[in-house]
Each structure stands twice: as C-alpha cells, then as structure tokens.
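For consistency, the fold was encoded as tokens, which produced the following:
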Amino acid sequence: MAQITYDEVNLMLRLYDMRREPRLRQARAWFVENFHPQSPEEMMKSYPQGSEENTYIRMVISYWDMVASIVNRGLINDELFFDSNGEIWVVWDRMRSIVPTWRAAFKNPLLFHNIEETCKRLETWREKRAPGSTAAMRQMMAQSKSGAKNA
C-alpha cells in the first residue's frame, strides 16, 4: 500500500466538500436516478439544451471529469480514491455508450478520456479485490433501471 500524503487526504476532503454543494448534490441525485439514455439522439430529445436536466447532466459529468483529471495526474493515490468513490463509475457506466458519438461529433477522440481511464483502473482494482463485482453492479443497475421504467 502506497504512503498517502496529507495533501492527498486534504484534496480528497475538498473534493468531497464540493460534492455537498446543494445544486451539485441535486444534480447528482437526479443523474443517478434518471439518466439512462440509449443514444445521443434520445438524450438530446429527452434533455434538450437549456433544460434543467441538461444542466444537471453537464454539472455531473464535468465534476467527475475534473476529479478524474486530478486522479489521473497522480495528485490523489488511486487506492485512496477508489476506496470511497464509486459514483464516478456509475456516471461513466451511464454515459459510456454515447461517448463515441460525442467524440465523433466534436472531433475529439479524448473527450471524457479522464473519466474513462480512471474507471478502467477502478474496475481493475475492484475486480482484484472482489472478482465479479463489476458485472454484478451492472446487473443491479440494469434491474433498477427496468424497475423504474415499469413503475
């Protein structure tokens, strides 16, 4: 286990404090509960530019992209981050199917690369500690999504 520095812990606490900001907290709750687009077209139809939901999507994704950028640069130890930050993986899992279209549309193959790379490492780390947990989480999220549609 790597030695964790005071600065890393302090930065983690600051990032956590940012997550507690009321509007971001509201956006995060909405995203986890409601963001299940099957395509970019569905997303734009359901959450058009200027809508409250579109604002929530941008807030959540930009927050986690910023955090992933910090983690990817080694400013926070991966294990320290992964121990208490699973939400980034949920965000990536919800957006990963539409990212290729966004990358093509913006002609930016690195769009959301930070989140993707952090989540790849998180999955590897998690699977070493709890084999099968990623598949189980995806299955659980799919069931909760279908349950929400049927409600």
Residues 6-145 form one domain. The CA atoms of residues 24 and 69 lie 18 Å apart.
